[in-house]
Amino acid sequence: MEDHGQTAPAPRGKKTPFGVALLPLIFMAVLLGVGYGVYKIKPQVLLVTAAFFTGAIGFLLGFTWREMQQGIVDSIHKAMPAILIMLCVGILIGTWISCGTIPLVIYYGLKIISPQFFLVTACVVCTLTAMATGTSWGTIGTLGVAFMGIAMGLGIPAGPAAGAVVAGAYMGDKMSPLSDIPNLATVVSGANLFDHIKHMMKSGLPAWLIGLGVYTVVGLGYGQEHVRSETVTLITDTLRRNFLDRGLGLNLLLLLPMAIVFFFAVAKKPTIPGMLLSSAAAAVLALVIQKESLVDVAAAVNSGYKASTGVDVVDGLISRGGLMSMMETQLVAFTAFSFGGIMQSTGMLRVILDRIASFCRRVWSLVLTTVGTAVVSALVTGSSYLSMIIPAELLGPMYREKGLAAKNLSRIVEESGGIIVPLIPWSMAGVYITGTIGVPTLSYLPWAVQNYTAVLILIFFGATGLTMSRRRREDETQAGS
Question: What pTM value is reported for the model?
């Protein structure tokens, strides 16, 4: 998001009282809690309203529109590198599906993992699928439904089965460069996407392994019947028929776009050129191997890939991507920047941070405050986006002041906010999951082990200082920060 340096102080002679500085945050919390939580109004509309309210307070405090507008422009300007990455992600998803890269990963993810241990299998397959597609909801709505059918046939309780599906889907989602959640976390925190994902592995991977350990122990008591799901078989057969019946050599070529992105990430090369090069390679493969027309590939870049396999469950899983798919996330970000820019330019954010700083004098207290703010934002708004935006906007400058890397903040807000949201019954994610797989949120919550274990690991890291990376450079959106 913005460059989390010293927040611009209010012009001399315009001292903002603490109570007045709190009004925009209170108004936004009520607005989001009622508007989004109850009436399901789009968050960008509510954030524009909150920005208008904050601007009105700014006028009453004696600030000009030019001063507040400059705050908005500065906030958006500093976030542009990360916003451009989000647009590239949309292109990447569309082209990777067109050429068959994502279908290939899903296919082998379903084929090579033995269904002997159901809970472990469900979690691992949903992790791989969400990582390949960048969508937890799409994974839950397709493979999640299939696994719940298997669970019913095996007599496995719905709560553990759903928990393994949800935990796996959100683990893959948060680790996928194709997902909007990690992309937004890096935008609002001012971090680099691939640095963020690598840093999050330090907390996410242990949590994932702990979850798999729990599923292994619990699953042994359910028996070891080998059951083949008709839905899973239908998915793999459809993917093979439409994308992979080209021979092993050509199929291996479909991994080239993924290899390009991984190379740029490991070599700490600029992110955007790597993503565009990968997309270009995927577009060529779509033309040569999948025999897609140039018009269809261009459409996938703009509005996403539109599958027409004749199998609804597969079409729903892989019809996604494109520049336009990122527009709503961009709108949420832009409107949040407008609110934050006014808060900064009027000095109201500085006043609030000065009060918080009296508690956040040490790293552990700053981490604990960030976790608490993200969780409360998730409970109030029920939104993965807002539960990351609010704590990052409020506490980002303090990470910079303490010399902590932005990827620490992005990791904490994603795992304490975005990944906690599906465990909240009144959130959009909780409602969607319950409606899709037919299991109440409170039934699968204890079994989504990875989601809440990662938060406990973050708190431990904050208390001990482990993995809390120091800030290395001014512009942390560059790789290797």
Answer: 0.77
Total domains in the fold of the chain: 1
The answer to whether 96 touches 287, Cβ cutoff 8 Å, is no
Angstrom distance (rounded) from CA 95 to CA 74? 33
309 pLDDT exceeds 50? yes
Residue 246 belongs to what domain range?
Answer: 83-325
Q: What percent of the chain has pLDDT over 90?
A: 48
Q: By mean pLDDT, which of 112-116, 311-315, 324-328 is the weakest?
A: 112-116
- Specify if 314 maps to a domain: yes
pLDDT at residue number 10: 45
Q: Is 369 helix (H, G, I), strand (E, B) or coil?
A: helix
Which pLDDT band, with edges at 50, 70 and 90, does 4 fall under? very low
Question: Which residue in this structure is represented by tokens 């406990």?
Answer: 456
Residue type for 426, please? W
Q: What is the number of other CB atoms lying within 10 angstroms of the CB of residue 220? A: 11
- pLDDT above 90 (res 425): no
Nearest to 31 by CA among 41, 22, 18, 20: 41
Asked if residue 423 lies in contact with residue 167, where contact means CB atoms within 8 angstroms, the answer is no
Whether 5 is covered by a domain: the verdict is no
Q: For residue 106, is it within any domain?
A: yes
Contacts of 205 (CB under 8 A, 6+ apart): none
Q: Alpha-carbon distance 481 to 473, whole Å?
A: 6
Q: Is residue 367 part of a domain?
A: no
120-154 in b/e form (b: 16+ CB < 10 A) is: bbbbbbbbbbbbbbbbbbbbbbbbbebbbbbbeee
Judge whether 190 and 476 are in contact, CB under 8 Å: yes
Task: Give mean pLDDT, residues 286-305.
Answer: 96
DSSP string for 160-203: HHHHHHHHHHHHHHHT-TTSHHHHHHHHHHT--HHHHHHHHHHH
The C-alpha torsion from 145 through 150 and 155 to 159, rounded to 10°, is -30
Place of tokens 């019946």: 245
* 114 has pLDDT over 90: no
CA–CA separation, 244 and 47 (whole Å): 45
